[in-house]
Each structure stands twice: as structure tokens, then as C-alpha cells.
Input
Amino acid sequence: MSPTAVNENPNGIANGVAPNGVQKPTTGNEMLAAASEARAKAISTLPAEGFDWRITLEGKVIAITGANRGIGLGIAEVCLANSAARVYSLDLLEPTDDFLALQKRFTGRLLYLQTDVTVEESIQAAVDKIVEESGAIHGMIANAGMTKHQPALDFDRPQLEKLFNLNVFGAYFCCTIAAKKFIELGVKGSIVITSSKVSDGPNRAAPSAPYGGTKAAVRNMARTLAMEWSKYGIRVNSISPGFVRTAMTYYVETAPDWDLKMQYYGGMPRLALPQELGGAYVYLLSDCASYTTGIDIPVFGVVGAW
Ligand SMILES: NC(=O)c1ccc[n+]([C@@H]2O[C@H](COP(=O)([O-])OP(=O)(O)OC[C@H]3O[C@@H](n4cnc5c(N)ncnc54)[C@H](O)[C@@H]3O)[C@@H](O)[C@H]2O)c1
Output
């Protein structure tokens, strides 16, 4: 760096003095002291003293978007089986029969708040309601999403906007609204975004370039949010499922070459059950993952290795 670079003015800081009058550290030792002061102010993600190191969600209140069916509902089941105090599904649709059955199994611990994650006010209202009812929120899983299978040349702008609005903007605002609430409450929250195997390559079973773009966007975003929010004790990660048996993948097993493809797969030549993803989410939501942030966990068996 040239000697003058210190006084260049990208942030409105001139001659070593910030706009608020604070002297900007310029020597190596001043910088070390400032960094150590900043570290002291940050909230550590370390668990509380006496932590028993069990992977559990005991006492935790978790919000999952799109948990009325499919992957979200599977994750909800595994969170509840691992002692989450309460799981809230923030979903647009009315609860499915499967959701109601799970609600019966975990009486009073699985709740539904009608929410449209493409509308910020709706997400905010849901998060406020969770805190009002349950006293806190500790985890947010930004999971609601959709796909559209169609050759790239056939997509028009409204179709693209619909996909990005739900998968990217929806996830983004779920993350930021949850993070602001964690900061307000002084909670070391954990955020997990559902990305996809196709975030780093094509879906060979069906053309869906814009969908892959949305999943790459959220996977990348998780890493930067993790960096920005670690000083608040907030962790942000993503999970990339392969093919999971839900309404979204009805077509996979109907492909004429499915049986043939299966002949070549060792290991797990099948679609995953939504619950089979749950352990990864539970880990990331738990205090045992206190040093895990900014990563993506791929959960796609062998089928996803195409
Ligand atoms: N199924 C798979 O194989 C697969 C693989 C990788 C990633 N994913 C991702 O997993 C997530 C869940 O997928 P799924 O297969 O369970 O899909 P799904 O269609 O079965 O479930 C999606 C849920 O999201 C809800 N939802 C839709 N729009 C919403 C909105 N605006 N506000 C709130 N909720 C809304 C739906 O009502 C539904 O309950 C998605 O993000 C998807 O991209 C799925």
C-alpha cells in the first residue's frame, strides 16, 4: 500500500479521522489494539459455560418456511424428535393432512402461521408473533422454494421473477428479519437456507437453469451473511439436497430411463425421504455447531452425484 493509501477516502474517512471524530488507527500496534477491542465487543458463538455437548434442540424455538409439506415438514419432524421446544411452519398453504398428523404426535409443539415469504411484512409479522407467543426465536430455516422445468430459451421475465422472488428474495428477507430479531433479543441464532445440489451444476433430469441460479444465489449469500453476522454470534449455513421425494420431484421416477440409471448406482439408488435431511439441519441449529458457519452441507446420496 502506498503511504497515501491510508488517507484515501472510500468511507468518508479523511486524514485518519472518521466522520464521528474517532481517530482511525494507523500504526500496526494501534490496529491490533482496535481489532482486539472489536473482538471484545463481538458476541462469541461459543456455547454457555457448562454446556454438555449433546446435539439437541432442547429449549429452542425454530421457524421453518414452507413446512406444511415436503422437505420442510420432514425437517420439522426431525427437529421435534430432537427435542425442539417448538417448531413453527411459516407457509402460504393451509396445513396438509401429514402436517396435522405430525401436530397430533407432538402436541402443542408444531404450529402454523400463514405467511407469504415473498412479502416482508408477512415474514416480520410471523417472527413477531413467534416471539410474542414463545418468548424467543433461536433458529430460522429459509426453506420455501419452487422450481420450473423448461428449456432456458422458453423462459420469459415474469416466470424468472416468480422464481427469484420466492427462492432468493424470500430467503434473503427471512434471513435479515430473523437476524434483526436475534440481535434485538441477544440470541445467538442459527440460520439455515435450503439450497440444492443444482446450485453448482445442471439438473440432468430436467432443464431448469433459472432454478439452479436461484439456488446458487442463496448458497453464496449464506457465506457472506455468515461473515457479516458472526460478530453478533449468528451462524448462517446452507444445505444442498439432491432428489428428495416430494411434490417437486414427482417426475424423476417416471423417466423412461430411470430403471436403467438405477442399474449403475451403487450405494443409495433412490430418492431421499425428507426426514433423511433432518439430521444435518438439527446439527446446524444446535449449539454443538458453535464453530460451524458459512458452509454448505451436501446431502444427496449417490443419485445426486450425476
Ligand atoms: N424436492 C427436492 O428434491 C429438492 C431438492 C433440492 C432442494 N429442494 C428445495 O427444498 C425446498 C422445499 O422443497 P420441497 O420439495 O419440499 O417443495 P414443496 O413444493 O413440497 O414444498 C414447498 C413448500 O413451500 C411453501 N411455499 C411456497 N410458496 C410460499 C410462500 N410464498 N410463502 C410461504 N411458503 C411458501 C409451499 O406451500 C409448500 O408447503 C425448496 O427450496 C426446494 O427448492 C428440493
Q: What stands out?
A: Confidence is low (pLDDT under 50) at residues 1-16. Helices lie at 28-41, 70-81, 97-105, 120-134, 157-185, 209-229, 258-263, 278-285. Residues 65-66, 68-72, 91-93, 115-118, 143-147, 166, 194, 196, 241, 243-244, 246-249 surround nicotinamide-adenine-dinucleotide (CB under 6 Å).
